[in-house]
Amino acid sequence: MTTRRSSLALKHIALLEGLSQSRFDQLAQRCQWQSVAAGAPLLLRSEEKSDVYFLVSGQLRVTTYSANGRQITFRDLNEGEHLGEIAAIDGRPRSADVLTLKPSVVASLDRLAFLELLRDEPVVAERVMQSPASLVRQLSERVIDLSTMGVQNRVHAELLRLAHEVGVDENRARLDPAPTHAELASRVSTNREQVTRELNALVRAGILAKDAKALVVLDVRRLAALLAEVRGFP
After folding, report:
1. For the segment 31-45, what is each residue's pLDDT rounded down to a tens digit?
2. What's the pTM?
3. DSSP string spanning 127-161?
4. Residues 6+ apart with CB under 8 A from 67
5. What is the pLDDT of residues 176-187, one digit of tens each?
6. Are 105 and 57 in contact (CB under 8 A)?
7. Where does the chain have alpha helices with state H?
8. With 230 labelled, which of 47, 76, 198, 221 sits at a CA distance of 20 to 30 A?
């Protein structure tokens, strides 16, 4: 479903912050705009598309599926973020699926227009270079965790990451709504039953509590200490 073009909406995209009004007006006209229902695919793995997508509103999940159908989740994107710059830069097919978690509005810029933007706006080009660098670091850390840690510690690592993502206040963090056990399992490469066991163990240890639809990390420092013992670094 198409939606109205808006230069004002693009001003909320972090990658584009600080551009001139004329540039925003130009980008708004060059972008393709669409509204996507929750639970719908936005991009498919191996798809021959090289557009860059700006998430104006909603939430997206970057994921893929193994040969036996197990879902593997890489990351979630929230309003103001972007995706697709790697395919736009190298011109190769998509490396993962992208699904909507909520009703979303996205604006997509074709590859040629995006490369033109990078040439014309050095500040955007610099941010684009920083984005894959950060992603490589995150994925490298994740590969190390998956290769060297057991399920228990992988669950600890993901809960700690989520806690810092939502914000820690007085050594506590509230995940509301709580991720489902299946979602956590897809993030740490295990099954739902093992996630359930590990979460229950953290509840018994007084590190985690359930509060209606939320999960509350009661002691973030203790959770971090458990993980540091295994990783060998904070």
Report:
1. 999 999 999 999 988
2. 0.70
3. HHHHHHHHHHHHHHHHHHHHHH--HHHHHHHHHHH
4. none
5. 989 899 889 988
6. yes
7. 7-10, 21-30, 85-90, 111-120, 122-148, 151-166, 181-188, 192-204, 220-231
8. 76
